[in-house]
Design brief:
Layout: E1 4-8, H1 22-25, H2 30-40, H3 43-52, H4 60-70, H5 73-82, E2 89-92, H6 109-122, E3 127-132, H7 140-152, E4 157-160, H8 174-183, E5 187-190, H9 205-208, H10 228-231, H11 242-247, E6 253-256, H12 273-284, E7 292-295, H13 303-315, E8 323-324, H14 339-350, H15 352-367
Parallel strand pairs: 1-2, 2-3, 3-4, 4-5, 5-6, 6-7, 7-8
The protein binds zinc ion.
Length: about 375
Amino acid sequence: MRIYNCHTHIFTLEDTPEGFLKYGLGFLPDWVLELLKRLVLKKWMARLALKLLRKPYAVKGLSFHLVGLLSTSSQVFRNLQKFYPPGSRFVVLPLNFAHVGLGDLKVPYAQQLDELIQVKRSFPNDCLLFVHIDPREDTNENNRKFIEKYLERGFSGIKMYTPLGYYPFDPRLEEVYRLAEEKAVPIVSHCSQGGIFYAGKELPKSFLRPQSFNPQAGGKYEFEAAKNEVFCDHFVHPERYIDVLEKFPKLKLCFAHFGWDTIEHRRKRIYHRKELYEGVKKLLLDERYPNLYADISYSLFDKKFSKQLKADFEANPALQDKVVFGTDYFMTLQEKLTESQLYEGFRADVGEAIFTKLAYENPKRFLTSAYYRAS
Ligand SMILES: [Zn+2]
C-alpha cells in the first residue's frame, strides 16, 4: 500500500505577511512581537537562536514559525518525506495571505506557486500541488482561468481557507466550482474554528451581510460583528456549503480537520465543537452529495477526536469510505509532537484495515481527476 498524506504545508515565512507572527504568539505584548519580528526575520539570527535554545519547540507558538523561517520549501518537503516509507505521496497546500489584512506579502503569491513547481520538478510523483483560491483576488471568470492555468501546469487540486475572510458561497467562486465539478478536481477546504483568521483592523460590511451565488430559499445571511478571531468562525461552518452543494452536488470537496477545533478554553467559540463535527458527518453521509470527504489533519493529535472518530466508524461503516488521512505538517509542531508520533500513533489507534482505507483507497478516489490519476 502507498501512503497518501492529503494535507501538508511546506510554505516558509517568506510567503507570509510581516504581521504573521501574531498567530500563535498573539498573547505576547506588542513590543515583544515587534522585537521578534525584527530579529526573527534575519535568518542568521534565528539560526543562532535555535542553537542557543535547547528546546525550540517548547515555545508553542514559535515552533512552526521557526520551521517556516529556517528552510526553503524544498527543505521542508525533504524533512517531511523522511518520516514516511519511500513512495509515499503528499498533498501540498499553499496559502495566499494577500487578503488577510496584515499588510503586503514579502514575496508575491505567484512566486510562492513558482517555487512549489520547482519542488515538484524534483519530486514529480511524490509532491501533489494544490492551488489556493481567494475569491477577492479577481472576478468570477478570472478566478476560474487562474485555477485552470495552474491545473494545466501540473497542479492536482484546489485549496480554500475561508477564515482568511471569505464565504464558500462567494459569487466569485461559482465558476471555480463549475470547473471543479466538471473535471472532478478535488478541493480541500479548512473547516475548523481557530487558527489563522482575517486580521484587518475592521470587519468589512460584506462579512456581516454576505451575498451568495445561490441564496437558500428565503434564507439571508446576517451575522453580528465580533472580535476578528471569533467572527471568522462563521466562515467555516459546514452549513455555509449548502448553497454550494445544492448547485454543484457532485463537487469533490474535503472538509479539512473534520470540523474539530483545538481552541483552548480561554478563547470564546461561536459554535460548539460538536456542532461542526456533527455537521460535517451529516454531510458526508448525505447521499445527495456523493463526493464529500473529511480529513483528520491536525485533529488527529487529540485523543478525544480519534476516540470519537473510531466510535463513529463502528456505528456507521459507510463513514470509513469518506475520510482521508492527513497530518497538517508542520502546523502540528505546535502540539510538541513529531510527524512520526502523529502518523504512527494514529495508524496504531485505528488499525491496519481502516488505515488502508484512509491513507490509500479513499485518497485514490478523492485525488483522481481529469488532471491527475492517483495509483
Ligand atoms: Zn492545514
